[in-house]
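Re: folding output
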Amino acid sequence: MKKKCIALVCAAALALSLTACGTVGQIGAADTDTNTNAVQAVGAEVSLEGATTLTFTDSGVAASDGDYTGYAIDGTALTIDGAGTYILTGTCGNGSVTVKKGTTGVTLVLNGLDLTSANTAPITCNKSTEVTICAADGSVNVLTDSAENNDESYPDNTEAENAVIKCKDGSRVTLCGTGSLTVNANGKNGIKSGASTAEEGEASLTIRELALTIDALVNDAVNAEQLLTIDSGTLTISAGDDALHCDLALNIGADGTAGPTITMTDCCEGIEGATLNIYSGDIAINAADDCLNAANSDLSGYDFSINISGGTITAYTSGGDGFDSNGDLNISGGTVAVWSVSSADNQPLDADGAIRITGGTVLAAGGSGGMGMSLTAEQPCVLFSFGGAGGFGGNSGGSSLTKGSAFTIGSGSSTTYSGEALCNAGFVFFSSSDLTADSSYNLAAGGSTLAAAAAQTGSVQTGMGGMGSMGGQPGQMSGGSFDPGSAPTPPSGDFRPGNKQ
């Protein structure tokens, strides 16, 4: 499903200190003109001149220094019902900010805001709103809810929004800025974005530039129903369920950019979307279940896919698949290292459709042969196995690669890859354009060669007690075939060692 990208602009500082948040794919395209106190960003001008400052305390909200009057105050509850730039600051133990349904052109500049809500979301963007939430340069901001902000656990709480930042159906929300924002979710989700509907319009959630920390031990850190885009910034996430979840399209980074730095210190699943595209970024995942998952049990006949074309991904799962797609898994670029402890049938790479590697540097290691891992590598690859866990017939080694071991892959005195084992490995798969087909390569650790294998292209399969194989021609998959040209086109738009449908 192709989704329209929404261009949003954000002013992120006070007085003459300004920062712009560009559109998707236009990171860094803004110029600042301090003489006119304005920001020119992708053709749209936003000025802080006349911005209204709203200061929270435990006793109320005070307004000052502004021309924008599209707001109402009721104790410590602030409602925004008019376009404009509103600077939010202060500390409040029980307050909230609500952008009224259908209100567009709203910029909320967080400048030293520490806001807690006792029974609802600290910030709510209602249906069909267009809101930019921007952390002012150098500012530290904290948003916190309570356990009562969960209508399943507290069904009598009619004010529950089930998220610290709630963005409802048809809302288009951008989180950005060069300050920091910490989200403490004690109710359910950290950030929740709604769906696109015929009545409310298209929904999207975009994150860029921001230093964002989310602690959501009950459910998802970020949950979007339609479109989730993470262009840039630094995200540190701990979640009771998914770290990043989207029911439809989830995009990380952009071609030609450094992309975001995302560290998932603890989660059930790392990143889940029906279509999951990773273009750039530095991503570390420590998960109890799947690290990447393309799935949605509510969608029938959908072409699920994981598409990795750039970035660096280091992924570890203690009890699931590394990368798991209910459709295809395509890796065409980037640097990937994925480790699965591999109890039962879990594998580092798993797909119901085709697994296709056409570029990049890919290392995938599993603790056991399990039910097998099948893929097609259109660039040279090697498969090392230990103690009969699988391999290229006769290439199994007698010693295993143990957790914490430093290891190398190379030929003779030349090292092609080096790393540290994140779990005990029964087999190691490696693919890189630096390999030469038909040449022999060794995997060594602790000064000893553990296994040797010849680099080849074509289909690869591991599993079932050492009956792994390698052979065939590019474009063929063990157990079936697929058209090399059929891979879907992605829609536009420090733990770096952590089979849901």
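--- second protein (sequence, then structure) ---
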Amino acid sequence: MFDLLGKQLRMPTGNIGKIVAKMMNKRNAKFYSEIINYLDVKDNDKIFEIGYGPGLGIKMLAELNLKCTINGIDFSELMFKEAYERNIKFINQLKVKLSYGDFLTEDFSKQTYNKVFCLNVIYFWKDLGVAFRKISSILESNGKFCIFMTHESEFQNKKFAKDFCKYSVVNVSTALRNAGFSSVNYVFNNGYFITAVK
């Protein structure tokens, strides 16, 4: 049962995945609001979310009604469908573009962004260096990367999280600097909000 929950949190599928998606939206709404503040979105921004889940964060950004584009990728087919349905109005307006696939293997050589973010995703990256170097490669000069992550102690005694990568904020900050980010800062507010500038 716990193994199933852990797998569903990583990649929601089927009817259980739909329940997990509702849980995600309820829990993550406040974290999305905060991370959007750190992104400091402005007109003409090109924003990218890694692991958009049910598409709540994408929708919150689009509803700011700024002249920016918002793209994202998720490797759960169910989440792609839910996020697409949630954001169909903005997709039709060409404000939002959603992809289905794995960020770590997708080719982004022809695309760049000035703001990239992810929320509750890094526990599923076994090599932060690989992930952060790829993120750096799609960021423009002085581009901003924002992360939200739960404190690693939250997962220590959770059976569903036995396969999660339990990084500390120090692990993550060091990996960001090693990947070439020149400025890394973080604050704790029911979890870590980390901001890195290329």
